[in-house]
Amino acid sequence: MSRIQFPKSIASRPVYGILAPRPGKAHLMIADAEGAEALLDLAAQDAGLMARAHILYIPRATGEAYTERLRALNPAQLYVGPSFDAALPRLRRVLSDAHMGLQVYLAGTEGLMGRAAAEVAAAGIPYGAVQTEHRGSLARRMQCVHCKGITEDVTTDPFVCSHCGLNLFVRDHYSRRLAAFQGVCIDAEDPGNIPEPVELYK
Amino acid sequence: MSAAPQKAKAGAEKIEVIVSAVVPVNELVTRFEFRRPDGAPFPPFSAGAHTVVEMRDQGRTRLNPYSLMSDPADPSLYAISVRRDDQGRGGSLYMHRQVKPGDRMTITYPVNLFPVDLRGRKHVFLAGGIGITPFLAMIAQLERLGARWELHYSVRNAALGSYADALTARHPGKVRVYHDDRKQAIPLADLLDGQPLGTHVYVCGPKGMIDWVHRTATEHGWPKDNVHSEEFLAPQPGTPFEVRLCKSDMTITVGENESLLEAMERCGVDAPFLCRGGACGQCETDVVEHDGSFIHRDHWLEDDQRASGKKIMPCVSRFVGPTLVLDR
Ligand code: FES
Q1: Furthest C-alpha separation in chain A
Q2: Which of A8, A1, A3 is nearest to A134 (CA)?
Q3: What fold is seen in the domain B241-326?
Q4: B120, B221, B224 ranked by CB distance to A103: nearest
């Protein structure tokens, strides 16, 4: 089972739901890795959705595990790509051609859902109207508040900033615009005094 | 529901005005323009705002909300348009029959419960009848910003289409007028489809039209946040009922032709309000005890709050039964 109940936290921390079919003129689905399972579940609830669905899927470490099953859903369009950045030009093109009545479904890691939601919001669909479902890795996309560099797929707290090398504490403080949590230097007062890194949510 | 801001006196701050013009627009609608006696600029307002006009009608005070229709960029005047309602409670008849140029009146600072969402890529306005008024201000504001908009305006017939000709002449590509008597209707489903992402739709008109737009937009997959509406309800007459106000320590009777809010005011209770039309939430009042049934008519309370029997909106809602005790 790739689902997790996140502990209750501060208001800025995103919360995710469970994808459900909604009436719409077109359906845009963006998922990475185990997020594919959420799309499969969604299709099982309403097979009619897929005739008007455009799926952007980034398998990441799951390789070929889900792509054939997604293809078997017979979506109107299916794109499988190596990374979110590789899919971005296509996503932007889809959004610029889209009309009101488009439903957006996001599934998978927090980093993917956050970045996709920011693009979708910039295109004019409010955050509250976008459905999300977390599946798979608990890794987070973190911004170092000191050097502003982004470190993807952070799985421990604290962690080392991949840009400036500071030891950063993982906060729940989240930026929708950056689609990233904030990492704050943990040993500023007492350099070198760094707690043993622990795996997130373990 | 958010907490009401604490103020010394109920209602928004007041402004003394002089009626500078009374202009008949058609058989049913008249425009009233206000200036300040000292010539000072009016407080700025954003399009969609309304003001509450105080009418002293033979010892009775009427307070009616009207959307400001004037250009928000012009601080020298406020204008409203009032549709005469011969069946109504008398506020519009008072405006039409008694108010003359040069009269002094009191109105409130504007309050906006129907603002334009300026994040919108495009704005689609749907007006029914006198519901055109807030859109006149919105159009002025959006024209100045160079924003994209279009208006679909449904009127009974050409003669009653307030400002329809002026709007069509000034914005030929953006305004469409539909005449009931020619069996023309706003093609809502077609309009909702094909709008660019980030479009917002705004509706002001009769209740049936507002419900139709919300329902159809939801069916077409529009997010709730992109659909905006405003409807001021007028309080409806009803059977008189008694209310115990525990904080004020008095028992009052709400008459057939007044609202609970008006009855409290008549008895000297300074009860909070802003819109007086069931839209703003300001008048929300806790029910301490009741035996009987509520007639909820507001657009504010959630279904579970209504079911709880613990809240009432005195500006538009009534009660039938022997006991009602309010925390006021
Ligand atoms: S005064 Fe606005 S809801 Fe009653």
Answers
A1: 59
A2: A3
A3: Ubiquitin-like (UB roll) (3.10.20)
A4: B221
Q: So what's the pLDDT on residue B134? A: 97
Q: Give the span between the Cα atoms of A39 and A131, in whole angstroms.
A: 12
Chain B residue with Cα closest to A130: B223
Kindly state the tokens that stand for A6.
């996140």
pTM listed for this prediction:
0.88
User: Which of B318, B312, B298 is CA-nearest to residue B233?
Assistant: B298
Report how far residue A193's alpha carbon sits from residue B120's, in angstroms, rounded to the nearest whole number. 49
- Listed in sequence order, the residues at least 6 apart from B54 whose beta carbon sits closer than 8 Å to its beta carbon are B14, B61, B62, B63, B105, B106, B107, B108
**Bridge partners (DSSP) listed for residue A184:** A169
> Cβ A124–B121 below 8 Å, yes or no?
yes
Q: Low-confidence residues of chain B, pLDDT below 70?
A: 1-9
Nearest in space to B151 (alpha carbons), one of B160, B162, B138, B251:
B138
Domain boundaries, chain B: 14-112, 122-230, 241-326
Q: What is the pLDDT, as a whole number, of residue B1? A: 43
Position in ligand 1 atom list of the atom nearest CA B274: 1
Q: Is CATH 2.40.30.10 correct for B14-112?
A: yes
Tell me the fold of B122-230. Rossmann fold (3.40.50)
Q: What 8-state DSSP symbol labels residue B296?
A: -
Which residue numbers in chain A have pLDDT < 70?
1-2, 202
Q: In what order do the strands lie in the sheet with B149-155?
A: B175-179, B149-155, B122-128, B199-204, B227-230
pLDDT tens for residues B237-280?
899 999 999 999 999 999 998 999 999 999 999 999 998 989 89
What domains can you pick out in chain A, each with its CATH number? 27-134 (3.40.50.80), 140-199 (no CATH)
Q: What percent of chain B has pLDDT over 70?
A: 97
How far is B137 from B141, CA to CA, in rounded Å?
6
Rounded Cα distance, A171 and A125, in Å:
27
Kindly write down the DSSP assignment for every residue of B76-120, as one continuous string: T-EEEEEE--TTS-SHHHHHHHH--TT-EEEEEPPEESS---TT-
Taking CA atoms only, the protein residue closest to ligand 1 atom 3 is B278
- N-term to C-term CA, chain A: 16
Identify the CA nearest to B135 among candidates B110, B117, B114. B114
CB contact under 8 A, A100 and B218: no
Alpha carbons B313 and B145: distance in angstroms, whole number: 37
Report d(CA B83, CA B101) in Å as an integer. Answer: 18
Q: What is the pLDDT of residue A202?
A: 64
